[in-house]
């Protein structure tokens, strides 16, 4: 009697794809539910109902809605980092870096929230809501290093880059939230305003 066994690599590969698909389904469901009814009102059961998965399957990946939310924030931040890398590669001076970084951020969150905006969902999922996640802390470190680099040229202003980084990120988060509430969403307007505000502050400090 001859038995035909499937290669173990094929079985493990299929299992890995299934796990990835299940995790992705939960995160996408979480995005939709959080956008529709808000984080506080959302329950794990709401997220599960948005998928075709069993409750037990959900708990194989996440213990709570908080973990789903954190994973969504981490995922968004990870994908934004690639845009920031492009900004870093092409920025030639401080003003260009600030403008292009804000443009990348505001454009990214506008794209991320296209579906909730289109559907009239009142709650929007902002990247960076959790500023203490490892991914977001890494982004902050990268931004600080970028600012130190573009400000290091001869005659450049002497600025506390830790404060500057905090201010730059704070402006982006607060203005991004307001930008997403506007109709139409004004990425260019938000970019110009945020850039002008940060640059004016730097000039004021440098002049003292």
From TrEMBL:
Write the record's keywords in alphabetical order, separated by commas.
Answer: DNA-binding, Transcription, Transcription regulation
Q: Which SUPFAM superfamilies does this chain map to?
A: Homeodomain-like
Summarize which parts of the chain are annotated to bind DNA, as ranges.
Answer: 43-62
- Could you identify this protein by its name? HTH tetR-type domain-containing protein
The record's Pfam families line, in alphabetical order, gives:
TetR_N
- Please verify whether the record's keywords include Lipoprotein: no
Output the PROSITE patterns linked to this UniProt entry. HTH_TETR_1 (PS01081), HTH_TETR_2 (PS50977)
Name the InterPro entries on file.
DNA-bd_HTH_TetR-type_CS, Homeodomain-like_sf, HTH-type_TetR-like_transc_reg, HTH_TetR
PANTHER family in the cross-refs: HTH-TYPE TRANSCRIPTIONAL REGULATOR BETI (PTHR30055:SF234), HTH-TYPE TRANSCRIPTIONAL REGULATOR RUTR (PTHR30055)
Q: Which GO terms describe its molecular function?
A: DNA-binding transcription factor activity; transcription cis-regulatory region binding
Tell me the ranges covered by the HTH tetR-type domain, including all copies.
20-80
User: Whose protein is this, by species?
Assistant: Hyphomonas atlantica
């Amino acid at each position: 009697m001859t038995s035909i066994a499937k290669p173990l690599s094929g079985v493990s590969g299929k299992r890995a794809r299934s796990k990835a698909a299940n995790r992705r389904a939960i995160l996408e469901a979480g995005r939709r539910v959080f956008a529709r009814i808000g984080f506080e009102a959302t329950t794990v059961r709401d997220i599960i109902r948005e998928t075709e998965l069993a409750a037990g399957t959900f708990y194989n990946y996440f213990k709570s809605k908080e973990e789903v939310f954190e994973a969504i924030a981490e995922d968004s931040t990870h994908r934004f980092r690639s845009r920031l890398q492009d900004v870093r590669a092409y920025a030639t001076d401080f003003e260009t870096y600030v403008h292009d970084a804000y443009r990348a951020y505001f454009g990214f969150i506008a794209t991320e929230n296209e579906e909730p905006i289109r559907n009239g969902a009142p709650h929007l999922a902002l990247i960076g809501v959790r500023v203490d996640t490892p991914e977001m802390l890494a982004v902050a470190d990268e931004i600080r290093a970028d600012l130190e680099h573009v400000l290091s040229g001869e005659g450049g202003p002497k600025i506390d880059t830790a404060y500057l980084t905090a201010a730059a990120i704070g402006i982006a988060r607060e203005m991004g939230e307001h930008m997403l509430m506007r109709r139409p969403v004004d990425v260019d307007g938000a970019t110009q305003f945020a850039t002008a505000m940060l640059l004016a502050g730097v000039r004021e400090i440098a002049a003292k």
